[in-house]
Amino acid sequence: MSAEPTLDVIAGEYVLGLMSPDEERDLEARLAGDAALKAAVREARERFLELDLTTDAGEPPAAVWDKINAQITGTAGTHSGHATVVPFAPKSASSKTAGFWQGFGAASLAASVIAGVGTAALWPTLRAPAPTVVVVLLDAQAKPGAIIEAFADDSVRVVPLENFTVPEGRVIQLWTLPDAKTGPVSIGLLPGVHETKLVGPSLPKPKPDQLYEFTLEPAGGSPTGKPTGPILVKGFAKQPI
Amino acid sequence: MFNYSASLSACAKGDRASLHALYQEEAGRLIGVARRIVRRQELAEEVVQDAFLQIWRKASSFDPELGSARSWIYTVVRNRALNVIRDGSREDLLDHEGLEKISPVDLGIEDVVGKLSRESRLRRCLEALDVQKRESVLMSYVSGYSHGEIAGRLSVPVGTAKSWVRRGLSALKDCMA
Description:
The complex is a heterodimer. By secondary structure, chain A is an alpha+beta fold.
């Protein structure tokens, strides 16, 4: 075996997943300007894909889709503009909806962990970065209802401060307004009124004064991809000192 | 015939029905691929769940010059699964759940070759390889083994395992050309 591996062997080791993280980074940096290497990677991927396709198709679990669906977001669109603010109900009044949320509890916790990190063991590395912006969301009476930390990697930590009443068949959706031209973009659906981590679509890094808001939407999220329901709370981002 | 490329384009535009259709079409097989690497059903489901979030977020970055849309989807899943086992070592996974919970599929790497279609060129070329080279390549791709793990399983030095994989890759390429 010669000392210098051929392009095909390098591409093969990359596709097999045998490279160290450093080697992978170097190769990916080379890929952009190296058509021959790209072709070698493409060939290796197509070659080995056949092995993956030997697994049994099987009906995929609906529960896994439900968790994915709770984490993904709708499309960007223009703001409806005439949303109104609904007052918070006192805590006791929300007991009727408690059962509705209980079913979501375990699943949403798992979903938020997966969305953020994949495995619990990765928590330390992903929890380490400081949020790019922090937002205090206020209701119409300027009472704080939730805190949001938005990170550079499109993830968002949501900490509710009020026990929002969510009628059956409705869900709280988190939106942000990256800029007026883009319009409001959905970051995700709150799986329940508790601390949650959501991963939104790929957006520019959150900026100071960027608008964030909760609206009440039909279960499954706004059907139009833009806010349709009443605004529960909203706030403008601040950059931590 | 499912159009994977159109599905990714639609996902990039925020069409969640497309992601759902892709899930229905492919997730069963993808969970199978993840299970060959992480060994446990519930862990494999978590891998695929996380991979679909990545597919949703990164669909716009799919580059057809690096492979078909379908191979990109499998690459995302394999990479998630590899991250999981390289983070927590394989031994940890074994200790927690006990051997009886581990899918036996990993112990039958050669069975995977047998599942390839009889007309498959890849099958013919894999069967033509020396057994060490074939097993080294398959342990790596199918089960996500590192060079060290291949060496351990085959009781050879790491350098030997590395060389077997390289020679296997090279011979496969020549055979399939």
